[in-house]
């Protein structure tokens, strides 16, 4: 039961995920959450850090695709400067968005990773799809109101997770 919430890796933030780490783990596609993973939830645009990270990742032929529960409009505006494909209304923790991305972009699960800042949505949907996952810390400390509710339950699950899996730690 608890294993549904267990991320494969935990890394401080998405910009710390290096191309080498991905290549070493046979990953050629990064599916990523949008809000508080790629851009702050209350921001309409990315950052220089995001631009540099994307340039670096893409140099190695690694794809980056946004899989977000947010609307087409919100994602389009946030990523407009970065030529990033995206799947809106992904309905995480359901698997709809990830499965859609896998089909549309002809991905193989074993070469794909899902990155996100929430155990209850990003990690659960990846685990349900049998796709590896990377949990990152949220870019800003506060959240949209609906996420605040998730965070309450997330804290409870988190405490159980670290008890059961003492080897889980932030890289
Ligand atoms: Mg998020």
From TrEMBL:
Q: Which UniProt keywords apply?
A: Hydrolase
GO MF annotations in UniProt:
phosphatidylglycerophosphatase activity
Q: Which GO terms describe its cellular component?
A: cytoplasm
Query: From which domain of life does this come?
Result: Bacteria
Tell me which InterPro entries the record gives: HAD-like_sf, HAD-SF_hydro_IIIA, HAD_sf, PGPP1/Gep4
Cell division as UniProt keyword: no
NCBIfam families in UniProt: HAD-SF-IIIA, YqeG_hyp_ppase
The protein's name in its UniProt record: HAD superfamily hydrolase
Organism, scientific name: Lentilactobacillus diolivorans DSM 14421
